[in-house]
Amino acid sequence: MSLHRVGLCGVDDSVDPSLLSAIVSRWPRVELGVLFRPGKEGQPRFPTRRWLEQLAKTARNTSPPAQLAGHLCGSAVDDVLQRGDVAFVQTLVGLGFRRVQLNATAPNGCMTAEDPSLLRKAAQQVQKACAAVPEVEFIVQANDQTEPLWRALLDEPPANLSLLWDASCGRGHTLDASLKTVETTIPQGFAGGLNRDNVATVLDQLRKGTARGRSIWIDMESGLRSDIDGSERFDVNRAWAVCAALDAIGWDDPDAPSPSPVSYDLPPQTTLIKHALAAHKVTLLRDRRTKPRDFRGLLRELSSYVGYEATRSLSTVPRHDCVTPRGVHVPADGRATRLAARCALVPIMRAGLGMVESMQALLPNAAVHQIGMFKRSGSDRPVEYYSRLPKHGGDSCDIAFILDPVVATAKTMTPVIAKLKAWGAHRIVACVILASAEGLRALHEAHPDVEVYAIQVDGRLARDGGLLPGLGDAGDRLFGATGVLSAKDIVANEALEKQLALGATYAWEEAGARPTRPRRPRADSAESLTRVRSEPSTLILGDVSGNTGEIPAPSLTDEAATQLTTHDGSFGPDPCRMRWGATTPSDRGPVLATTRHTTQRNAIGAHAGGYSVYRALAVAAGKIDRDALPQLGLTTPAAKIGPHAAWRNSDAIVTMDPWGHAISEGFGAWLDKGYDVRPTIAITKAHVQLPECLDALRCGRLTPDGSVLTDDGTSVVTKAAIEPVWYLPGVAKRFGVSERVLRDALFAETNSMYPELISRDPCLNRRVVLHAIDAT
After folding, report:
1. CA distances from 487 to 377, 464, 472 (A)
2. Residue among 345, 361, 356, 344 at smallest CA distance from 396
3. What is d(CA 8, CA 222) in angstroms, rounded to the nearest whole number?
4. Is the pLDDT of residue 596 over 50?
5. What is the mean pLDDT of residues 22-45?
6. H or E stretch at 74
7. What pLDDT does residue 493 have?
8. Alpha-carbon distance 655 to 525, whole Å?
9. Can you tell me whether residue 261 is helix, strand or coil?
10. Which residue did the predictor score with more confidence, 48 or 492?
11. Per-residue confidence (pLDDT) for residue 713, from 0 to 100
């Protein structure tokens, strides 16, 4: 039996996270367990939000990064068991948690546990939660009280489900190492009354009995607490002593039998390279402690292994001119040959570039044609941003080797294959290191004639389509760009910012600022262009004061370069927040669509729609000062309109900005900061004589009231010129489609006018479009 993890549970504000980091650095198999129970935040064993953020930051910076597990108690676990609600779980993912334990017992404050029938029904909700957050391993306590739950889950266990045999429930009852567990392939752990004095003995008993031949984890909580100066605290000395005791007995059992490899039902065109060296080096490739230099070397070696197998059946022709140094002619009977196949290497950027060098060593005369393709989160349609396939030449390519270290969903590989087939490649072979069983089946369904050579297969996919356990983002690790946000991180950050329905103690959105990424440094500063704002001539909104929060400093456009691509997670774009449908304009935030703040724009398109081309002409001719800022205090409305209740409903108004007529009043704090916020509605009054009204006045159908219609037939009117501002989620909801479908259609039918519709993920806050429709 091997111990792959030891959980030190109950870490809280009583311990400095740096001390926990020291333990993890010394023993990387340690997992830090954090208890969550609404209403108990700040009490012993239940940390505050501020401390938790410190722990998350310390865990990320620890070498290797610390493993974190969330133990849900009280209403936090009831939300999962009763409704399958994973909002809080997704929040924990954003903080770096990858395991979540469901403490579904009465001592842990779980109301569902009081009724066995409810626990049995809760199995469906747990399965729902496992499917919603596949990158998280969900742990269910297995004991007499939770038996209705875990027994029901064993019928169809999710791939990311584990069982923890724990009859203690945090009460310190000692684990019975002779307990009988169920025969299942589900990962299992053990807990109950473990401490520094008995952990070695209990582990030895498990190793000889119940857990013989398995890979397990153990978890402890009460044995790590001490009464220090009259208060209960997490005792670092006890935690250190536990790990030292495990060191003494050994984390791994050298006499344990090797586990049987997991087998998958793979398509017939898939070849797995089963080699001890390859498996060893793939393990090193997966390890997050592997540095970029070592990662590149390992990828080159593994690419050679795959390349040798993939080129096994290349066509050859006899060679008749081979003579050895002894002057002996080598007969052309199969011993003297040369390659006849004309080959091309097609790496899918970025990660595929790491496989090119080793493949070129095998096929030095092969042409190399790069294709840049990335898959957007939430969309089945990948984006091709680069292609080096020559216009002609496909007919002269006998075999094309596609190079990509990882195949997860195959939604990137599939269109590349289709492109190569259309190009004219006669035969296509995919060379990969890791693949998912699901991706291989999808690839075979779309292209059954394509051969795939891989080293290992993983069985799970994350929400964003990433491979689990996988090896992370191969491109980031290859080029040392691990600080770049992935799509998964973006989704996690969005979840972190959502209001949690766990009571006031866990309403974390109001406390602390949103994590921000560093911006590109500028030689000049925004303060140099901050203007003195003219106060609005009229006040028409009334009391709409709200919480503007911390307004970031405006970042001005760098004129030294034009940013063509705006892919998610890259350095630079950091749109300002906008909460459509917020109660007040200060809570909502302004629509930023000018060219002054390129990296902070939160809208797609430009002000004035189709008329923006005339501004471009003036800029090109040097007839306009691009740094000039309007004094918006003179643009206040001539009539009081609103605010109305519908303005605070994100579903009620979706094609215009209801606050767009009162910029100076509603977004004064942003203007004072130096932001270029423009109005999208102009409200004026006018005196007009309408022929229809004059005729009705003469005929007596209308009677002048002196207010709207005067004696001489003049009509007093209020006019509004409205610039379309579309809130895409609301528009999509009106038409009963997803936002992604709407974005794809807008991009296609406007002849690719707005690339950000597909290159920028909706989670990054660009969900508003100012399109080229004339104002009305």
Report:
1. 6, 7, 12
2. 344
3. 10
4. yes
5. 93
6. helix 74-83
7. 41
8. 34
9. coil
10. 48
11. 87
| Of residues 505 and 705, more confidently modeled | 705
Eight-state DSSP code of residue 323: B
Cβ-proximal residues to 639 (8 Å cutoff; 6+ apart), any chain: 540, 683, 685, 718
- Whole-angstrom CA distances from 624 to 119, 559, 592, 696 are 70, 16, 20, 47
Q: How far is CA 572 from CA 9, 351, 767, in A?
A: 39, 22, 18
**Residue 528 CB neighbours (<10 A):** 9
For 330, the token pair is 């080598």
Query: In terms of pLDDT, which residue wins out, 231 or 1?
Result: 231
Q: Is the pLDDT of residue 1 over 70?
A: no
Amino acid at 384: E
Q: How far apart are CA 140 and CA 169, in angstroms?
A: 12
Q: What does the DSSP 8-state code read for residue 387?
A: E
Question: What Å distances lie between residue 127 and 83, 115, 163, 318, 423, CA to CA?
Answer: 11, 19, 14, 60, 44
Run of H or E including 718: strand 715-722
Interatomic CA distance for residues 662 and 567, integer angstroms: 33
Which of 410, 397, 411, 322 shows the shortest CA–CA distance to 363? 397
pTM: 0.63
For residue 192, the model assigns a pLDDT of 86
Strand, coil or helix: 306 = helix
3-state secondary structure of 682: strand
The answer on pLDDT for 490 being more than 50 is no
Element (H, E) at 467: strand 467-468
What is the pLDDT averaged over residues 12-26? 93
Evaluate the CA torsion angle 204, 289, 68, 134 in order and state its sign. negative
Range of 208-222, 229-243, 759-773 with top mean pLDDT: 229-243
| Alpha helix (H) residue ranges in 535-629 | 585-588, 612-620
DSSP state of 36: E
State which H helix or E strand residue 733 sits in: helix 728-734
Dihedral of the CA atoms 297, 303, 308, 310 (nearest 10)? Answer: 180
For the stretch 317-338, pLDDT in tens is: 888 888 889 888 888 887 888 8
Which spans in 133-251 are helix H? 147-153, 199-208, 236-249
Binning pLDDT at 50, 70 and 90, where does residue 636 land? confident
Neighbours of 64 (CB within 10 A): 12
Q: What is the DSSP letter of 764?
A: G
Placement of tokens 């449908």 in the chain: 581
- For 496-516, letters b (16+ CB in 10 Å) and e give beeebebeebbebeeeeeeee
Two structure tokens written together for 586: 């200060």
pLDDT at position 511: 33
Closest alpha carbon to 753 in 604, 608, 631: 604
pLDDT at residue 630, rounded to an integer? 75
Q: Are 656 and 680 in contact (CB under 8 A)?
A: yes
H or E stretch at 124: helix 116-132
Q: Cα-atom radius of gyration of the chain, to the nearest Å?
A: 32
Q: Which H/E stretch holds residue 98?
A: strand 97-102
Span 384-433, pLDDT tens digits: 778 778 876 667 788 999 999 999 988 889 988 988 888 888 899 999 99
pLDDT at position 525: 44
Question: 3-state DSSP: the chain helix, strand, coil percent, rounded to 5?
Answer: 35, 20, 50
- Coil, helix or strand for 59? helix
Please say whether the beta carbons of 173 and 141 come within 8 A: no
- Whether the predicted pLDDT of 143 surpasses 50: yes
Q: Are 70 and 101 in contact (CB under 8 A)?
A: yes
Tell which residue, 47, 23, 24, 28, has the closest CA to residue 36: 47
Distance CA 102, CA 78 (A): 9
Q: Which residue has the higher pLDDT, 772 or 301?
A: 301
- Rounded Cα distance between 217 and 66, Å, is 16
